[in-house]
């Protein structure tokens, strides 16, 4: 489709009618063709979407937006942990424009929820030339039958009237770019850039009792206290052991 809103926002934007994975495509092309910071690849027909930890993101053609953005922030590697969190916040803020904002929240590290159900997920990957590709899947026009799991939702299910992918894509980029720029301008300092406060305020995980599943099938129960300078979730385990900074894992919010 025409993407007049989105095209003016970034130096390079490629809309693909169909692709296996926008992340995969951008990882391959960015390194091979030297694409600049803030290049975007997007589609609404992603046939082999990747999730985290080897899982998949599944959405029938036309039901979801898949958007990947190439970032070359020239920051110390540990600080890059903030990039998917920034992307998740940008998706949440974009979703605010389409559904009632008080229903939109973020679950660390990468889920955007509406009314507690998953609207979006984010996956960040490194390229061979040291850039970061941050991909977001957002369920847009999906009906309940389109969605692979009953815990998912879409903008349409939540009552949004959508005219196509361009307004959703441009809303996401409009929210992402200022967050990213202030984070980079602050040298990757999430605190002074205001990114940490903005993400924390939006993150339903912080202050919650959680069940945390770490890679390797390790389960920890505890309370999420906050997010550290590298974007890690800081957890106070319920067994009284020391604070645990968590870089990767799956969180379930537990009702007290
Ligand atoms: C994610 O992984 O949520 C990251 C998804 C990232 C997708 C984007 S699309 C653009 C870019 N290109 C790619 O190839 N990927 C990125 P994770 O936290 O591991 O969650 C995966 C789990 O979410 C699955 O195991 C399902 O349970 C669930 N899921 C899959 N498809 C979904 C959907 N359309 N809506 C909601 N939940 C879904």
TrEMBL record:
Which residue intervals define the domain BPL/LPL catalytic in the entry? Answer: 1-184
Could you say which EC number(s) this protein's record lists?
Answer: 6.3.4.15
Output the Pfam families linked to this UniProt entry. Answer: BPL_C, BPL_LplA_LipB
Q: Which CDD domains match?
A: BPL (cd16442)
Q: Which InterPro entries match?
A: aa-tRNA-synth_II/BPL/LPL (IPR045864), Biotin_CoA_COase_ligase (IPR004408), BPL_C (IPR003142), BPL_LPL_catalytic (IPR004143)
Q: Which UniProt keywords apply?
A: Biotin, Ligase
Q: What Gene Ontology terms describe where this protein resides (cellular component)? A: cytoplasm
UniProt GO molecular function: biotin--[biotin carboxyl-carrier protein] ligase activity
Q: Does the keyword S-adenosyl-L-methionine apply?
A: no
Q: PANTHER family attached here?
A: BIOTIN PROTEIN LIGASE, BIOTIN--PROTEIN LIGASE
Indicate what this protein is called per its UniProt record: biotin--[biotin carboxyl-carrier protein] ligase
Please give the organism: Labedella populi
